[in-house]
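Below sits my pick:
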Amino acid sequence: MPANIDERQLAVAGVYAQALLGLANSAGEVDQILEELLQLGSLLDGAPELEEYLQSPLVKEESRREAIENLFRGRLSELLVDTLQVMNRKGRLELIHALVEAYRQEYEELKGQVDVRVTTAIPLSDAVRQRLRVTTSKLTGKQAQLVEKIDPSILGGMILQIGDGKMDTSIARKVRKLGEEMVERASRELHGGSQHVSTS
């Protein structure tokens, strides 16, 4: 979960995300809505003044409503624009980034997918990447989506985190063992030295 989103925000945004996903599923727009939400999140990241305007309590609701219509109606799906308008009326536009994350999580659940965050000192080889994807998919029963991060400070080895980290302890043990095996087998491809695995 992005560092700028806390559990409370995610929980509140989850209500909107679930409603949006349900409507999108009925309309056959589940994938489209996810893509649009990711684009919206990127847009706000690149335009902090727009994000500040939409979130500011000093801006009247009607002004924000008009801004949403002018900026997004006809450019984003009707379902997404309508959701933004509902959030505006409820004074919840500060949760747009949380909505993006909550919808993404709901989407993955619907599609039987799970994020597998992998931190290594150097990039994974194609062989290690494929083995990791296949093995974690078998362990979780879901389609693993690798989210890779390079962190030279760990020297060597691999840090694994699946989903939100709140997994069954038996799966946690298997993931830990998997990480140890992956490090051992990939030691010639990854740097030598201290190697460690975390499922936190």
